[in-house]
Design a protein that fits this description.
three-stranded antiparallel beta sheet, Rossmann fold, binds 2-amino-2-deoxy-6-O-phosphono-alpha-D-glucopyranose, alpha/beta, seven-stranded parallel beta sheet
Amino acid sequence: MRVVIQDNYDKMSRWAAAYIAAKINAHNEDRPFVLGLPTGSSPIGVYKELIRMNRAGELSFANVVTFNMDEYLGLPHEHDQSYWYFMHDTFFDHLVDMKPENINILNGMTDDPAGECARYEEKIASCGGIDLFMGGIGVDGHLAFNEPFTSLSSRTGLRDLTTDTRIVNSRFFGGDPEKVPAQALSVGIGTVTDSKEVLVLISGHNKARALAATVEGGVSQKWTCSALQLHNGAIIACDEAACGELTVDTYKYFLDIEKKERL
Ligand code: GLP
């Protein structure tokens, strides 16, 4: 696992965007680059930078297919807290050459969640698998909506959200946890770790425990993000604020080993 520590959120975002852009630009297979994407506040800086590069003509999305991590169950596209709405409003609508038919987001209004999730897995497979899955994590270490004690080999499916997650996410729903949907459709931990590369953004003091669990804790379903320790192409991009619970040795190790700032 690589852990790339940047001074602050902006630098972390620019580093991650540059990494993703380099991968897309270097992709020369005769199939599109397949990119997994998260929602939340963590990736907003990366999205802004990718949009800047795209509009400046430095990065094309014409040959990119995207798969989003998750979607609330029961929220229509036009609901301003649906992840469909977030992704279009924050990212897709600002790109000059993203093809709408290349955007894949789980349908939270489906009346057949199991079928919808099975089709999502099949579509990922039919695209040749995900080249790079970008993610964020919750304060409890959830990756996508894979709450603590979700199987580390889970596939895309329906998930119950914990009370804690609904409280944390209630900041987007007028502060009322009851307004946060109780269930979501989500890729599984196994879906994420099947990707060739996984790049997870972790920033801020409130994620310090989760970062330590991801990097230093044992692999455990209690912290689903810890599954990344078994992935051969996992990168954590984080900021200084998130490093507060790492041991000094771990912190020094990654600063030392990453000092060349290689891409
Ligand atoms: C939600 C999403 C996760 C995301 C998490 C963290 O629960 N389902 O995919 O990683 O929020 O969000 P934030 O980046 O806002 O801290």
